[in-house]
Amino acid sequence: MYSIASIFSNQDETFWQSLNKTCEYGGLHKTAIPHFSWQSAESYQFDLVRAELSKISTDVAPFSFKTSGVGIFNNKRKIFFLIIVKNRALLEMHEMIWLRTVQFTEQANLHYSPENWIPHITLNLNELTEDQFKCSIDELTRKPMNFEFEVHEFGLLYLTSTTSGIDSLYPLEPDK
Question: Which run of H or of E encompasses 70?
């Protein structure tokens, strides 16, 4: 699976460190590549999507976004996530990225389409036991979840059953 994502930074690492200690099992964590996804697909026409991402990155200036709490995707694996505050600029950027790149996807994940997109930062990739899930709910509802993150680049990321990483990076133009 691949995704077009924003790579972000945050100067305050204490929240991420406390996540690793939640319930003392490490099921919640800062991902190796802190990001949120604009689009996800099984695969891409890589030369074409890379060229388009390069163009898009010259049209977008670095930006910041805020989080406002924690949510749960309650599917087979219960997934905790930080809720990203939606604003008009973020929604317009998402729609622009989606429209300019969807034609290069192979099996696009429609949960990321403009009408379905829930901007979020995943906190657990692994399935949690019922005890871990209950403990996480208890712990996460006690913590403030209002953060601000800065985005300076887009990335084309990949995730397989054994590894994850960055295919390519696209720095955002600072003078836009």
Answer: strand 63-74
Does residue 119 contact residue 94 with C-beta atoms inside 8 Å?
yes
Q: Supply the DSSP symbol for 172.
A: P
Rounded CA-CA distance 135/21 in Å is 12
Q: Would you state the pLDDT for residue 171?
A: 96
Q: How would you classify the pairing of strands 78-84 and 105-108?
A: unpaired
Evaluate whether 156 touches 167 at the Cβ level (below 8 Å).
yes
Do residues 43 and 107 touch, judged by C-beta distance below 8 A?
A: yes
**pLDDT digit string, tens, across residues 20-46:** 666 655 566 556 678 899 999 999 999
112 burial level (CB within 10 Å; 0-12, 13-18, 19+): buried
H/E stretch holding 122: strand 120-122
Q: C-alpha 2: how far from its chain's center?
A: 12
Proportion of the chain above pLDDT 70, given as a percent = 84
Asked if 158 contacts 164 with a C-beta cutoff of 8 angstroms, the reply is: yes
